[in-house]
Write a structure and sequence with these properties.
The protein is an all-alpha fold. Helices cover about 65% and strands about 0% of the residues. The termini are far apart.
């Protein structure tokens, strides 16, 4: 998967997770954990400009 697609998949996953937070299905802490897992899965470093931390 190229970098552009990795960023796209990461962003799509986080959009779903943000919806879950708004609906009360997960907490902000859960969101942070999921965001870190998605960043690792899609190869985004901790200082990436594409990271979407709350």
């Amino acid at each position: 998967m190229d970098k552009e697609n990795r960023i796209l998949h990461y962003s799509a996953a986080l959009a779903v997770f943000r919806t879950w937070v708004r609906q009360g299905w997960i907490t902000e802490d859960d969101f942070r954990l999921l965001e870190a897992k998605m960043a690792e899965r899609y190869g985004l470093s901790n200082n990436s400009i594409y990271r979407q931390t709350p």
